[in-house]
Structures are given as structure tokens and as C-alpha cells.
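Researcher: Sit down with what I've pasted below and flag anything odd:
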Amino acid sequence: MKTCHMTFMMLAIAVFVYLTPALAHAAEVKESNYKGRKTLELNNGLIEVQVAPDIGGRIIQFKLKDVEFLWVNDHLAGKMPPPTGVGPKGEWLNYGGDKLWPAPQGWGSEDKWPGPPGPTIEGLPHKALASPRKGSHVAVHLTSPEDKSTGIQFTRSINVNDGGTHVKIHSIMRNIDTKPRRWGIWQVTQINCGDRAGTGYDKEIWAYCPRNPKSIFPKGFKVMYGAADNPAFQPDAEKKMMRVHYVRQVGKIGLDSAAGWLAVVRKGHVFVERFQCFAGKPHPDDASVEFWIQAPGKFDAAGKENVIADDLVAAPPYMEAEVLSPFAELRPGKTYDFQNEWSATNIGGNFPVLDCTEVGVTCEPFSAKMDGDRLLLTGRFGVFYTGYLLLSFFDAKEKQLKQFSLNVNVTPEKPLVLSPDPQLTANVKVPGSAAKVAICTAGNGPYAELARAPIRR
């Protein structure tokens, strides 16, 4: 992760004078109601996070302005979980949203979790505490009941700051048993793949996750459930990317991705999850990322063939983007921490996500070319913070030479598209020894690189 440094005090003053973005809406947390259910809402004017403690401590919805990313089961809207945490026939009550599970999943052994359903961990109410504003952020803290069957208890904190679309999630797993336990933290996020009419599915939903160039899997991923030739899973060898297309065929894959991010694109809006990577450490299923396609079809699990009917009730249109921590070897009373972040942005169409940093995504490569004494820039991006753009120049040895501000404000609500317009860089004088240029964002977020490219002459 590279950071852009402000090297000239006069530049900093000038930027503040004429490019200061609008003041960020202050983040707040309050009691709310989402689809007939009591929730705690975290909101900063850009994003809204709805947390439902009563149904397994879920994040039930995540929004960028009016755009909702998470699938929610409308058939269970407003309904409280029964005391058992499961349905009348012992079935899983799939409320939707995002939740924590212990990993690995499996049957017939106490070191594998035989859910869902997981009545205690994800079916019963969690204790919730809304944290008052500290500095520029607010938080909600959740604590699950103690689960005797797995010997663990989850807690997690959900944090939202001013001026950006980041949601920081800190999860903790504690061994409440009298003997050692070995589990991974498994965060399962259900992405809505339904069409806007609610009568079918959206055929243009794609997820992206970099494959590990040193993967233990021959193809960079493994098929866990469903057919090996499922058209949902499309590895891109040239870009070393796994592309996942929501189609109506059930299936699941796992990747030992070491890039630390995944992204889902829907109608030009992007949901991004960034997470800690622990290359070389044992993971449940040998995977750091898994994708499940909820759709009709057959798959083997729990020692039997399972059949999902072809209707929108039995097979509601959603995709699970799942992130797994390494295994934690927990002695009684000990804890293990895992952290990840969500972000959201608008890229202006169904473009692929090629790269991701802490401040945004790249959808069309960043390029820089000299045309006489003018620098021409191209690229398409989505940013996670409101702010402005900077250009930072480097020589062939990566030494920073100079920095310029561009008269461009950025926001997660709109795509950032650079076209080869000389007026964009009219105030930029490229140093003669410059070999590379980075485009950076600043303002309400960190001073950090969005992309870097060689300068073609």
C-alpha cells in the first residue's frame, strides 16, 4: 500500500483554499426500523448500515445512498426468532444480510460446524451496545450467546466514519469451553442478485477476486459444491482474476486468494470487501474466500444429494461472498481477532474491477502519455471517499519528485473517468526525470494512491 505525501506547504494551502470538498456529514448511530424490524442504524450521509441484533446479530442491510447491496428475506421480515432459533421443523431461518459462522462447515465431527442452522450463533438475539461518537466515528458492538456445541462466543464491532463509505468490522472469537478449540472466523455476506421488479434475477451481476499466483489449487480455485463446469465460475488467466457471474445454477468455489479484496458489481455500483491476509497459514477449506451461488440445482452435502427447486422461494436470487480467517488454536478463555472492511462506490456501468486499494477501485487501467509538454491521462475508477485528486511524480528509482493538485473533486456517488483532455492537467509541469505518475485522493479520507502508471513519451 503506497501513500502520497504532501511535499510542498504552499500546495497544501492552495488545495485547501479552492479544492476543499464539502464538509462531511457527521456519522451518527441511532435506533431505527428496517422492514418492520428494530435495528441500530449507522449513517454518515453517504452510507447506511442497518444492524439487527435480534436475529443473530446480523448486518441486515448496507446502502450507498439509496442503493441496497444485501439480500433480505422478505418472507421473514419483522419476525422474531423462536426460542429455539430454528423453524418449527428444525429448519434454517435464513433472514439474509451478513453474519458470522464458525468454520469449517461439516457433519459428523465436533471439529466441524454442521450448520446452517446454527441456532445459538446465528439464530438467537445478540446483546448490542451503540457506542457514542468518538472523534469522527460511531460504532455498534454485538455479543453472541455462548454456544456450547462449538465452545465459542463471537463479538464484533461495526464502525462508520465521517466522509467515506468504509465500514470497519472487528470480529473476536472466544473459547468459552474447558478444552482447546480450533476454529476459523467465517463472515458470510449475502448479496442481492434479484431484479428491480422482484420477479426474477439480474443477469449482469459479477464478482471479482484475484487468484493466488502461487495457489495450492491447480486452477487457482477449487469447486466445493455443484458441477465442475458451472458457468458461474469463470477464471481469467490473463488477468489472474476469478470472475463469478450470478446464473441460475447452484454451486460453490473456494480460493486461497492472497490479495486481500473482493468486489461485486451491480448496475454500476460496487460492493468491496477488504480483509486481512495470512499467506501460508492453514485456513478452513484451505480457502480465504468462497463464493456460493444460491440457485436451482443439485449438490452433495451432509452425505446426501440435495436438490433445490427452480422457484424464487426455494432458490432466492443471491450470491454469498464469504471471507475466512486462518484457523485459531484457542485454549480455554483465549480469543482470536480478525478485521475486515466494506466500502462502496459508483463506477458508472457494469465494468470489471481490475484492482483495489484503500481509497478506491480501478475499472479501466490508468495510463499516462506525454503529448508535447502536456500530460494526458486516461482511466476509470470508483472512489471510497469525498475529496480531490493529486498527481505525484516519481523517477526511475521510485523517488518522489513533485506533486500537483488537479481541479477535480471526487465522490463515491459518481464514477471518476479520466479522458485525454489537456485542460485536465493544464497546471501540471512534468519533471524531466519523471518516469512514473500516481493518481492519489485526499480530503475526507487518507492521502493514498488510487493507481500508478509509467509515463509514455
